[in-house]
Amino acid sequence: MVRQRPPTKKGGKDPSTEDIQAVLASLKRLSTKRDRDNLARFGIIAGKTLGVSMSNILVVAKKLGRNHELAAGLWDTGVYEARMLAAFVDEPQGVTAAQMDRWCRDFDNWGICDTLCFVLFDRTPHAWAKVAKWSGSREEFVKRASFALLWGLTVHDKKSGDEQFVQGLQLIERAAPDDRHFVKKSVNMALRAIGKRNLALNKAAVAVAGRLAESSDASSRWIGKDALRELTSPKVRSRLGPRTSKR
Q1: pTM score > 0.85 for this model?
Q2: Cα 84 vs. chain centroid, distance in angstroms?
Q3: Which of 57, 67, 135, 178 is least surrounded, with the fewest CB atoms within 10 Å of its CB?
Q4: What's phi and psi for 52, nearest 5 deg?
Q5: CA distances (Å), 90 to each of 20, 189, 242, in order?
Q6: Contact call for residues 48 and 79 (beta carbons, < 8 A)
Q7: What 3-state class would DSSP assign to 79?
Q8: Residue 75: which residues within 8 A CB-CB, separation 6 or more?
Q9: CB-based contacts of 59: which residues, under 8 Å, 6+ apart?
Q10: What is the chain's pLDDT, residue by residue, as a tens digit (247 residues)?
Q11: Cα dist. 217→171, 179, 204 in Å?
């Protein structure tokens, strides 16, 4: 059952239960057995799923446009595809820090975690604070969210200087011994992403990766060696070129 939400502080009209059910009906019409099977094939396990491809979720999102209240209602359904849709429908500037914490605690698979971080959370004013806060979480997908968010910021944050990402490298080095699969993978991805942002950060990331590669800890060693292969590759070095950071 969809929970009814209290009126917004802006005085706007919340979507009705009928509005939410209409969106769910649109998603159900687009569901297929193949897409349901693909969820399991990609290791995505969620409580309630319909089986809708990402391309079709984007079609629905485009029709709906941005609507913060609608996104909240979709999230409350607990349906995987509705929550994925909420990432594209919500308004980044309307997302609160408390909402980010609340939704993050609901993450139960890498698909919803990464999509929310790459599409919505990394565009909010609270992104950097959550990277730091979530990096120390004991919950696997909350901790993964920290580094998925850091990865997203390397792409979408055009204003922050290198110092923010250097601090991110410190969080990466601290989290590297966590050998839980979904944490380890996100730490690795964040390290590689920072090292591809510019030449100065490549140098800093390579130094971190080098230390991790020499670690006696198996998880740290895997993260470091895997990152080094990409960050020192001719392809990455050629793309970055002999430039120095402008930040």
Answers
A1: yes
A2: 11
A3: 67
A4: -125, 130
A5: 14, 25, 40
A6: yes
A7: strand
A8: 82, 83, 86, 103, 106
A9: 30
A10: 334 343 343 434 567 789 999 999 999 999 999 999 999 889 998 889 999 999 999 999 999 999 999 999 999 999 999 999 999 999 999 999 999 999 999 999 999 999 999 999 999 999 999 999 999 999 999 999 999 999 999 999 999 999 999 999 999 999 999 999 999 999 999 999 999 999 999 999 999 999 999 999 999 999 999 999 999 999 999 999 865 444 4
A11: 16, 9, 21
As given in the structure block, the two tokens for residue 231 are: 């960050």
CB 46 within 8 A of CB 108: yes
Within 8 A by CB and 6+ apart from 42, the residues are 111
Q: What is the chain's alpha carbon radius of gyration, rounded to the nearest angstrom? A: 19
Integer Cα distance of 189 and 141 in angstroms: 15
- Alpha helix (H) residue ranges in 8-139: 17-29, 33-41, 54-64, 68-76, 80-89, 97-106, 110-119, 127-134
How far, in Å, CA of 212 to CA of 227, rounded?
10
Place of tokens 């250097």: 166
Contact of 115 with 122, CB cutoff 8 Å: no
